[in-house]
Amino acid sequence: MSKEQRLHPAAILFNLMKGLKEMVFLIILGFFTFRDSGLLYYILAIVAIIVLGLVSSFLSWYRYTYRIENEELCIEYGVFIRKKRFISKNRIQSIDLTQGVLHRIFKLTKVQIETAGSGDGAEASLQAVKFAEGERLQNELKNGITVVIEQNDDEPEHPTSTISFKRLFLAGSTSGSLGIILAILGGGLSEIEQFIPEQFFETTVQWIIGLSIFFIAGLAFLVLIIVWLVGIAGTMIKYGNFTITKHHEELFITRGLLEKKQITIPLKRIQAIGIEESILRQPLGYVTVFAEVAGGTSGKGEDAATVLFPIMKQEEVASFLAEFLPDYAIKEEEWTGLPKRALKYYLLRSSIFFLLASIAVFYFFPKFSLLPVLLLLVFIYLGHLRYKDAGYQVKGEQLLLRYRLFSKKTMIMYHNRIQSFEKKQHIVHRKQKLGNMHVSIIGKMGGAHFYLKEFDVESIDHLSDWYSYRDI
Q1: 189: which of 8, 198, 210, 396 is 20 to 30 A away, CA to CA?
Q2: Which positions, given as ranges, span the membrane (predicted)?
């Protein structure tokens, strides 16, 4: 039994900052509301909030203890109502260490412990402990298996791969972060627009309408260049010093310049392997390799799947999988694709919105009709790509699915990982002997779902028979 311990006192600061971060919009709203009258009361209220937050953070830190006892991690917490949580070593799936900027200044780390039933949050999270203590917990809770990879003459070399600066820069240059950054900017503007006078919007709209189409295009191009550069910096900060190592039955991933993360992935939790080719990377022959992992919380939003390697050449994928995940190593064979009669569905789905938009803009704003027409042509081409890339392969117990939304993705999974297979047909499909299929596996945040549409009904029935073992 280990001695009962507390988190590092810096956890008080982290808890206080977390509470203030959650109240940031309320604080900003209060400032604009009371800046003319009652500013003194506003300042006093902020001081009171900080003092109360500091007291609450201190009590939470003081009452939070942990220890390892009888093959279990025991955590006690709660200021007024005491709670105890026991996590058996046998239930622990992964233990991840994360170091933010403040963590690294104080030489601390955050320990996240995940089990098979963690759901949307980690089973336990130790906000701030000394890095050496984090490694000790990681080693002890993994039943004594040391996760620090060291080579010696008596032990075979562990497969390891790192990313070069050139590849990392290329990953940032061709990442899909442009849309994410624009979405964040749009969300931020929607939050602060209530503080901007309505007259300002009216004046701005009139000014934009009065500009020439070439000036507007140039301004938009400049904004995109700036956002693109921000995306490069973000990718390099996120995946800097990326290293993946295979050790026994686990993969260990270390990445991050400002926030350093150490992620553990047990091989038995991997449900599928994906190969992603974005529109920008595909012509250059580069892909991203990722894994759909059962449960866990280390990836959310754009990281709902765990990236195994940010960018590599298409021809390097086979050797990478053979070295780190030999069960998922593949050889290209003939794909079962879509029939020609399915093409019209893909073209219509991709272009209908921009077709209607082109008509509306041409009628109301003929000066700007060129833009939606260009977008219409782009999405017609995208619809053709979606049609051309869709397909599947069956090799024994292994299923390969290929599809495209914007990026082309190839998923590799095994029969025993598939949770459900569903076939759908509407009346038009039945007349043309077409159908849609829906394949689901366990993944983060509730699972991963794959939809392949307008396949020949015989192909879907063949895959359905394979899934239900009716053809055996």
Answers
A1: 210
A2: 12-34, 40-62, 168-187, 207-230, 346-364, 370-387
Q: Do 306 and 398 lie in a common domain?
A: yes
Handedness of CA 191, 196, 198, 201 (dihedral sign): negative
Residues near 170 by beta carbon (within 8 Å), at least 6 away in sequence: 284, 286, 311
> Greater confidence, 5 or 227?
5
Neighbours of 196 (CB within 10 A): 11
Burial of 39 (0-12, 13-18, 19+ CB in 10 A): exposed
Closest CA to 115 of 127, 124, 103: 124
For residues 450 and 463, the answer to whether their CB atoms sit within 8 Å is no
pLDDT band at 269 (very low <50, low <70, confident <90, very high): confident
- Same domain, residue pair 225 and 309: no
* Alpha-carbon distances of 290 from 141, 165, 306, 307, 309, rounded to whole Å: 26, 20, 5, 4, 7
Does residue 450 lie within any of the structural domains? Answer: yes
Residue 144 has pLDDT above 60, yes or no: no
Please check whether residue 148 lies inside any domain of the structure: no
Q: Token pair for residue 13?
A: 């600061």
User: Which pair of structure tokens corresponds to residue 355?
Assistant: 């077709």
Are residues 431 and 348 part of one domain?
no
At residue 156, does pLDDT exceed 60?
no
In the prediction, which pLDDT does 431 show?
92
